[in-house]
Amino acid sequence: MSTDTHKRTFVVWVEDQPGVLNRVASLFRRRAYNIESLNVGQTHEKGVSRMTVVCRADSDTAKRIEANLYKLVNVLEVDDITHKQSLVRDLALIKVRATRDNRDEIVRLCEVFRARVVDVGPENLVIEITGAPGKIKGLVTVLEGYGIEEMVQSGAIAMTRGVEPAVDRRNENRPTLVA
Amino acid sequence: MTASAQEPTPPITRETMPDRRGDVLTGSQIIWEVLVREGVDVCFGYPGGAIMPAYDAMVQYPIRHVLTRHEQGASHMADGYARVSGKVGVAIATSGPGATNLVTGIATAMLDSSPIVCITGQVPAHLLGSDAFQETDITGVTLPITKHNYLITRAADIAPCLREAFYIARSGRPGPVLVDITKNALQESCTFEWSDEEPTLPGYRPKFTPLPAHMEEAIALIHKAKRPIILAGQGIIKSGASEILKTFVDTSDVPVACTLLGLGGLPASHPRNLGMMGMHGEAWVNTAIQEADLIIAAGMRFDDRVTGNLKTYAAGARKIHIELDPSEINKNVKVDVPIIGDVGEVLEDLTPHLEKVERPDWIARIDELKGDSAVRDIKHLPDLGKLYAAHVIHDLWRLTEGKALVVTDVGQHQMWEAQYYHHDEPGTLVTSGGLGTMGFALPAAIGARFAHPEDNIWVIVGDGGFQMTAAELSTCVQENLKVNIAIINNGYLGMVRQWQEFFYGGRYVATPIVSPDFVKLADAHGLKGMRVTTRAEVAEAVKAAEAHDGTVVIDFRVEQEDAVYPMVPAGADLHDMIKRPKPHRVDGSPAAHNPIYETGEDR
Question: Which of A25, A48, A83 is the last residue of a domain?
């Protein structure tokens, strides 16, 4: 891989059909493209699901990832948003040990990170945080001192800033495929 | 039995077939309705439990079914049919083992971009996922080796999905599509609806228009180049662009090297056709590629068997890549000008802008390279009493006047065929290039026979590969087919033996192979078998085979330890070739295993 290898984010619109996630995952696996995270969910458009795929690749590989995704019949549109102004968010739930003595302290820390306490138990709290992966990591680091019992984190979901409705961007020539 | 049941029913033709659009039909009937409307008149398959309803409905339709001896044969036959006809080939199998047996043929078609549709039966929908008898997740299995696949659980989905399958298989860069249909969908009924319009798929857009800037850049590069070379691949043949390529070459005067699958794309006899490139390509071709200052890759994909070491591959050349599949751009070789589009259309658009540039030094240099290399016309070689594969294939070329449709298997004989049988017409060589599938030849030739009923078809196959699918001889008998089979029998898995000789210290591990008596094998099938052990017998045997009505098997007992030269070892620099040893040692005594030497005088 050449020197411009770094983390890249693709937004992939796919037909909402059985097996499509498998097709996309299988493509990355068999072409040895390394997925860091893959998120899939519904959109406002009926029959259209949206994936956010984060993987490490150089710029040539990124073009081929895009081209290979387009070869999948169920893939409607691909957008490499790595270099576009965009919002990238993860969601995490963190169950942290908390006693009566330190509970307020933890809640105050969460406020700093704009995280929310979503469940309170006798000996622990569940904290919900959304944000860029770095911000979540920051919260995890400070919570580690209290004792994290369990945590779960989604992969990234991403969206470009400004108005770019997917339907309008569908383009017959796909000039991005040829550098 | 009633009298009417004994009367033979006239065969159903396309004309006498009732128009059942709007009728309520079973899923099984709908399969054949779609196939007939897609122009299918032959399919290759093997029945079994889950697909039986489809077979039961088949007799109502004007489609010939060829019963194979193994489902691998069915997928290769569909592939061979597709390669020769340019139409979509169809293979049919049952669920489970029937479907998995298709897999090798599907992967073969995938790597060589051959349009086939495979229809498999599946267990009833309510049993899916229960490990039912003969249940295999074949859409999962074939996901990475198909262009697309479908699992259908309702009769109503059969017509639209099959229609899409044919469209996807043949359009853009062609490839295999598998349609898996549960038994309940075959048995249930629904209204058959049909529209002749091409399906529109929101995510599938196979057409590309090249960017004008890239076209202009390409023309400028071609005019500026001092040492240009065209690399012509299978895309030329698939796109039907042979004449266009010829005009392009005649206009620009740029020499051409062909890939294995590109052979025939430009006539071998064309003065600017240098021959095959790659691992067993001609030495002058590989050297010319390494010395070129411009490569125009047309409908080829820089396979590792063509490039050798990528770091040193054509290092001094700018590269134009004309390719239908954008994912091939910069995959193996970094190119300067990518042109994405149909290679025929692109070459046709480029040609009017080309001017003939005289490059006498470059042409002289290539002639010089040829001069010290082997040439491939060995007509005048002395007959030393031994039979070489090269003799057989060269003589076959002369005796068939280069006009046979040759179907090869994989291995040494395949490379010798590429070197010694000169193809002047596109589509006259059918071979498994990308996947290198042994056992491909005989079934692919059977498929080809249905596409070209009149052609003189020769199967060239090794003793190893032939035994992988030799059971299809019975298919030839049952279907009353004629193909001529030349077994290049050296008693070894020859290409592997050659690698063992060159790279594994001459340890012939698991490569000596015992074969049945192929003449008796032919005889056991009621076919004609012959054995040839000297060059003097070759011509007579070839003529006798061609004169015979049915399939003929000729067992050519060739020199056992001959090797294919030149050879670029896997991963080595393209110019770093192992060449055929000289015919004589330094002291003048003859060298062992080396009676085929070629000189420039023979041509």
Answer: A83
